[in-house]
Amino acid sequence: MGYKFKPNKGVAKRVRVTKSGKLKHSHELNSHLRSSRSPAKKRHLGRPSVLDETQAKRLRGLLGISGSRPNRAAHRKALAQKAAAEAK
User: Fold this and answer.
1) Is 63 exposed, middle or buried (0-12, 13-18, 19+ CB in 10 A)?
2) Over the chain, what is the mean pLDDT?
3) Quick one: CATH architecture of 9-87?
């Protein structure tokens, strides 16, 4: 019998996958000692961000979704927009 893949639950709890395959995560530096940070910095850290593709590729492997490719999805979206513009 073959090996059953088990996704990394720690990564799954910390990261969400967008529709195009990008990974969103929340910033670090949020738990304590926030009084010394500026309000703008605190606002910035409170919002989720898209993970850099070099790290996202590695984490997708841990999640078992290595087939989704955000650059390919963006490329197809751009081609569709170009085709729609030419059709008008």
Assistant:
1) middle
2) 90
3) Irregular (4.10)
How many Å apart are CA 66 and CA 79, to the nearest integer? 23
At 9, the pLDDT band (50, 70, 90 cuts) reads: very high
Tell me the whole-structure pTM to 2 decimals: 0.71
- Given a contact cutoff of 8 angstroms between Cβ atoms, the answer to whether 53 and 70 are in contact is yes
Inter-residue contact 29 to 36 (CB < 8 Å): no
- Tell me phi and psi for residue 32, to 5 degrees: -155, 170
- Encoded tokens for 62: 């841990």
In tens, the pLDDT along 19-61 reads 788 899 999 999 999 999 999 999 999 999 999 988 998 999 9
Q: What is the dihedral of CA 48, 53, 59, 65, to 10 degrees?
A: 100
| Through-space distance between the first and last CA atoms of the chain, rounded to whole angstroms | 56
Torsion angle in degrees (nearest 10) through CA of 81, 75, 59, 8: 60
